[in-house]
Amino acid sequence: MSVMTPPNVRTGDYIEEVLTTVKAKNPAEPEFHQAVQEVLESLRLVLQRHPEYRSAKILERIIEPERVLMFRVPWFDDRNEIQVNRGFRIEMNSAIGPYKGGLRFHPSVNLGILKFLAFEQVFKNSLTTLPMGGGKGGSDFDPKGKSDNEVMRFCQSFMIELARHIGPDTDVPAGDIGVGGREIGFLFGQYKRIRNEFTGVLTGKGLTWGGSLIRPEATGYGCVYFAAEMLKTRKDKLEGKLCLVSGSGNVSQYTIEKLLQLGAKPITCSDSDGVIFDPDGINQEKLAWVMELKNVRRGRIREYADKFKKAVFMPTDIKLDHNPIWNIKADCAFPSATQNEIKKKDAENLLKNGCKLVAEGANMPSTLEATKTFLDANILYGPAKAANAGGVATSGLEMSQNSQRLSWTREEVDDRLHKIMIAIHNTCYETAEKYGTPGNLVNGANIGGFLKVANAMLDQGLV
């Protein structure tokens, strides 16, 4: 039974000790350091009330992956030349269920980025109400510009090693950046061939072989559902709101689609080259064109400005301390591209231009300084581990369907997703109030996600 203890300086010292250890044991992994720091800052409030977590070394255990896999992935390109990439799987925490989290294929992939993503995934999955642990994986392979045959050969080589470490009751990967339906298909086919079994070992599968309706849409839809719940707390709604959306991949596309369905007006999207701003709004017809551009032709977003004459293309410069997309007047922002895309200057620009809500569709898209700027301004701020949990929640629903050998209708899945996002928001909102920081959904998400995992770890002994 936990007891209330007064705040004391020792809790702060303890947090600093853990952070120092993380940085010393995991050098050159700034994203991982950032993710751990953000969570631990919130947990100061918890440790004062629950000394049992400290004595059981829950923090020291929860920041250490249960297993880290790193392996060589050799494959033949179309010129019959050998290429070599590096593969990873971080199995972070299985206290509440099998490891669950995406695979990312992108040149930027390294150990530190995947550890940050796996750490975030633990708490995000905990918030979904579903029994899923946390993991993440991927490779520095870049599918961009590769033929289908090259992607297939890479995926088959990658799965030869990964297959021995995953399974429907052990570790269930999904897609992430660079891993869509094509890649999941190749990975699943090779797993089935190696293991001689048809199981729900991957999520994001095709609808005819075990996939779930709404899965491609889930992260974007869920983020918008979460934003709608935040607005309800201030007796407001999305209808008529001007919305900035970054990125132009899966999350961005379906964020825009759900915003349109709820009566909002999305006016931007972007890729690594730059930003398009359409003052007339991106309607359903324009969105369909973007989907064809990105999903079929795999083109660049600058083409939008050639097609739709009122739209403006603004190139981005990574050397600058800001991105032009966040300096456009709007009511709401949905960062849906990548980690740390909103820096302190971007946060200040958003506030200056009247932004009252930020809902994070990407993983950790705001720096610590940007997050503090939003919280200090008391705007509605939905952190990624809560706002973008719809994707993994629907992956969990896909796992449930696979276990039952059933397929639910589109309406059933969307309804369950909507209810999960409402439940996640309620957990964050109520936990923030309970721990003395009303409205701070960062604290609410971190604490709410942590408590479920920490209590499971206590129950299961020293493992």
How would you describe the overall organization of this protein?
- This protein is an alpha/beta fold and 463 residues long.
- The chain folds into 3 domains: 9-62; 67-198, 3-Layer(aba) Sandwich (Rossmann fold); 218-387, NAD(P)-binding Rossmann-like Domain (Rossmann fold).
- 48% of the residues lie in helices and 14% in strands.
- It has a 5-stranded mixed sheet. It has a 5-stranded parallel sheet with strand order 7-6-11-12-13, sandwiched between helices.
- The chain is globular and about 65 Å long.
- The model is unreliable at 1-9 (pLDDT under 50).
CATH fold descriptor of the largest domain:
Rossmann fold
Backbone shape: globular
What is the CATH architecture descriptor of the largest domain?
3-Layer(aba) Sandwich
| End-to-end CA span | 22 Å
The residue ranges in which pLDDT falls below 50 over 5 or more consecutive positions are 1-9
Which class of secondary structure composition applies to the elements?
A: alpha/beta
Radius of gyration: 21 Å
